[in-house]
Amino acid sequence: MNTNLLNYYKKVLNYEERPEFLKKYENTPSLLRLKKIGYFCGMDYASKDVYSFKEKISRYDHSITTALLTWNLSNNRIETLAALFHDISTPCFSHVIDYMNNDYKKQESTEEFTEQIIKKDEVLTDLLKKDFILVDDIVNFKKYSIVDNNRPKICADRLDGIILTGISWTKNIGKEDIKNILNNIKLYNNENNEYEIGFTDKEIAKKIVFVNKNINKYCHTNEDNYMMELLADITKKAINKGIIKYSDLYVMNEELLINLLSNSVDTNIRNAISLFKIIKRNNIPKIELNNVKDRVINPLVNGKRLIKKA
C-alpha cells in the first residue's frame, strides 16, 4: 500500500535525524506490538465498500510521530518519552473496545492498563533506570500539556491524530498541508498558563479546524457507528464464549485476532465477521448512538483563540 504521505510526514518531522535516545526506546517490546495495531480501530479489515483508507497507519506510527512533534517543540526527553508511550495500552481494535465498555464519550477506558504494561516491559524499565527516568514520569503522560490536554485545546496527540486521519481517511491533507502545518506550529502559554501547541498562521489553523470537522463528521456517521458497534459486539461475544480473554486484547495483534474470529468454531462469530468484511454501505441499518465523542477544537493563533467566545 502506498505510504508516501506518511513517509513524507516523518521526513518533515526530521525522523532520520531523530535523537539517539529516542531510537533505543523505539524497539521496546511493548511499543513494537503497536506495529500490528491499526490506527483506525480494526477498520482496516472492514468492508472496503464502507472504508477506503489511503494508507495503512499503525498505532506505532502514531506513537513515533507524536513523540517527534513533542521533541521538535520541547526538546524535553521525558515529555517526548511520555508521548512515545502514551498509547502503549491500546488494545486490538483500539476505540472499538471503548465502545464495548460503553465508553463512547471519552473513549479512555483502556488507558487504565498503561502503568501495568510499562512496568511489565523489562527492556523499557531497564532503559528508564539507566537514564534515571522514573516510570511514573512516563505513565502519567496527561500531566504534560504539550502531549495531552483537554479539548478544545491542541496537543501533540490531537494534532498528530488530525494529520494522520486527514492523510488516510478523510483524505483532505496533502504534502503541502503537512509542510505548512509543521512550519507554522509553536508552543504558546495559554489562558490556563500551560504550554499548548498553536499556529503562527491563521489560515493554517483554519485548515486544521476544517479537517477536524470532517473527522468529527465521519466519526458520527451511521456507517461508522454501526461498524464500530458491530466489531465491539463480535469481540464481546468472543470473550463471553471463552474464545478469547479480555486480557488477550492487550497482547495479541489485530491480524491474528481477526483470523482467530474468522475461523472460530462458533458459527455466529464467523458469520458476524464475514458480515463485517463484506457488508455494503447501502445495506447498513440505522442505529442510534447519541453520546459518541464530539471532537471539537479551537486552536491558538499567535497565542489567541481562533474562535472568540460570544
Order of helices and strands: HHHHHHHHHHHEEHHHHEE
Shape: globular
Task: Pick out the low-confidence regions.
Answer: none
Number of DSSP strand runs? 4
CATH top level label: Mainly Alpha
**What is the radius of gyration?**
19 Å
Mean pLDDT level: 94
Assign the CATH architecture.
Orthogonal Bundle
User: Roughly what percent helix?
Assistant: 40-55%
Distance between the termini: 46 Å
Please state how the strands of the largest beta sheet are arranged side by side.
1-2-3-4
Number of domains: 1
Quickly give the structural class.
Answer: mainly alpha
Alpha plus pi helix count:
15
Strand fraction band? under 5%
Largest sheet: 4 strands, mixed
What's the CATH superfamily, by name?
Hypothetical protein af1432
Question: What do we call the CATH topology?
Answer: Hypothetical protein af1432
Structure characterization notes:
By secondary structure, the protein is mostly helical. The protein has a single domain (4-221, 293-305), classed as Hypothetical protein af1432, CATH 1.10.3210.10. Helix content is 48%, strand content 5%. It has 15 helices and four strands. A four-stranded mixed beta sheet has the order 1-2-3-4. The model has no long low-confidence stretch (mean pLDDT 94).
Please supply descriptive tags for the structure shown above.
globular, 310 residues, mainly alpha
In a few lines, what is going on in this structure?
The chain is mainly alpha-helical and 310 residues long. The protein has 15 helices and 4 strands.
